[in-house]
Amino acid sequence: MGSNTDLVDPFERQRLADGRLVTRREALTQAVTERAVELVMSAVDVNALLDQVDLNAVLDQVDMNRVLDRIDLDRLLARVDLNDIVQSLDVDALIQQTDLGAVIAASSSGAAADVLDVVRSQAVGLDEFIARWIARLRRRSYTGPPGPPGRPRAEAAS
Amino acid sequence: MTARAGDAPPRGSPAVIRESLQGKYAGFASRFTAFAVDVGVSLGVFLLALAAVSFAARVLTGRDISWNKGDIWVIIAYAVWAFIYFAYSWAASGRTAGMALFGVRVVRDDGTHASARRAVVRTLALPLSFLFLGLGFAGILLGDRRRALHDVIAGTAVIYSWDARAARLRFLSRG
Q: Under an 8 A CB cutoff, do B146 and A145 touch?
């Protein structure tokens, strides 16, 4: 059987004191670090730093294809609710701001001009076909139609 | 933009795609189809006018007017209308609606603008080309200058006024 002093840890008081000291030390260190970072950040001119960064050179080093390969577009699109987006669009306001008349007129006139060019091309092609055959029957060489000596003014868009 | 005289268009192709024929004598197909369109347009307008007259007469007098196609007055009225249609169009701009559609126009035989007098003479001489089974049109097929009988009488010619090269550039700019 031991004495009563065997139950007392002789270093307990020292450990308790050390624990309090450690806590204080950590708090002090953290406060010092925060203050130091604060001082450094206020001293650094971020704009000047960014000016020195050559973003083009950085982007040149980025392999976009590789980045895109890693993106799962299907999964990304599956998470997009297109119906929700479409419903959020104010189509009426969009139409009111668009000059639909001008759009339709431009596309219609373009299509009409295309049709006109095709019709004329076909007619001229037939002209040349007939002229070549007539020349062949008359045993003459055909070198295209001649024109009158004087020329009328060119038509801008006929 | 005009192609040089004497340039040969590529064989077996609608030459307009590569080369403008603007200012050259127009061929038979373009002229014939343009004339067919003109006959259709003038006849359509004439029939519409007859219908309008009938409607107006029925509203005003309450009587129906029936037109007989063989009626001499209807034929004379159409002849007068056709004369006005062709003569005015050729005198004003050198082309009718059908000719504008197919990109051809009437000019003097030296290539300059046809006067009103020539337009009138050409219109009056046009029926002569239909005589003897349309023998007067043979000059378009066989003549070097592609002139029909009424062209020779009026001293006119028909040329392409359509710039195929510009049309192609327009097409490319839209594409």
A: yes
